[in-house]
Amino acid sequence: MRIVLVGPPGAGKGTQAAYLAKNLSIPHISTGDLFRANISQGTPLGQKAQEYMRAGQLVPDEVTIGMARGRMAEPDAADGFLLDGFPRNLSQAEALDGILRGTGTKLDAVLDLEVPEDEVVKRIAGRRMCRNDSTHIFHVEYTPPKTEGVCDVCGGELYQREDDSEDTVRKRLEVYHTETEPIIDYYKAQELVVTISALGKVDEVTRRAMEALGRSA
């Protein structure tokens, strides 16, 4: 299967992408991983991306598209893939259509993870990270530490990242509504969109997603 995963920040795309890719036996291709791999390997596209990032500028669509095209051409993606974070806007969606036409393939589905805006804010703004180890993550409501402000694992200080403040989250949501949401209508016109609720436990959402894709979890 060839799937695009969309949803607002805080919808759990990364978590669901990993589970779905494993269940469907296809590679999970995320924009973040593409950037990290190209930059660490020093590819021409990675070098271009790093130049823009160092200058505090957005990486142009053509660079992101080039990275995605290269990754989808790798052998493990021959029979399918799950795209997470790409396409991010209409220009990228149209480019993806062109890439697939060029290989004689097409998307099977665009999975839209739906979460109420207030829930997104609650999920992200409630996160607390450990200063000693960023993999130690807590939530003030869902997974609170035993002692407020203290990491259960190592005793480090818990803090809220600047990116996780409510104001920043709402700005990120505005960007999502403006830039990314239009691709949902674009794909609806192609009758590719399946929308599911991303509320509930991780395994419940995964089961919902697999059923929407016509597969059993």
From TrEMBL:
Residue positions binding AMP: 31, 36, 57-59, 85-88, 92, 161, 172
GO biological process: AMP salvage
One term of GO molecular function: ATP binding
Signal peptide: none
Cell compartment(s), UniProt: Cytoplasm
Catalytic EC class: transferase
Top-level taxon of origin: Bacteria
The protein's Enzyme Commission number: 2.7.4.3
Chief site of localization: cytoplasm
InterPro entries (UniProt xref): Adenyl_kin_sub (IPR006259), Adenylat/UMP-CMP_kin (IPR000850), Adenylat_kinase_CS (IPR033690), Adenylate_kinase_lid-dom (IPR007862), P-loop_NTPase (IPR027417)
Positions of the UniProt region annotated as NMP: 30-59
Reactions the enzyme catalyzes: AMP + ATP = 2 ADP
UniProt keyword ATP-binding, yes or no: yes
CDD domains with a match to the protein in the record: ADK
Pathways per UniProt: Purine metabolism; AMP biosynthesis via salvage pathway; AMP from ADP: step 1/1
The Adenylate kinase active site lid domain, residue ranges: 127-163
Keywords linked to the UniProt accession: ATP-binding, Cytoplasm, Kinase, Nucleotide biosynthesis, Nucleotide-binding, Transferase
Protein task: Catalyzes the reversible transfer of the terminal phosphate group between ATP and AMP. Plays an important role in cellular energy homeostasis and in adenine nucleotide metabolism.
Entry remark concerning the domains of this protein: Consists of three domains, a large central CORE domain and two small peripheral domains, NMPbind and LID, which undergo movements during catalysis. The LID domain closes over the site of phosphoryl transfer upon ATP binding. Assembling and dissambling the active center during each catalytic cycle provides an effective means to prevent ATP hydrolysis.
Cross-referenced HAMAP family: Adenylate_kinase_Adk
Family of this protein: Belongs to the adenylate kinase family.
Name of the protein: Adenylate kinase
Species of origin: Streptomyces carminius
GN (gene name): adk
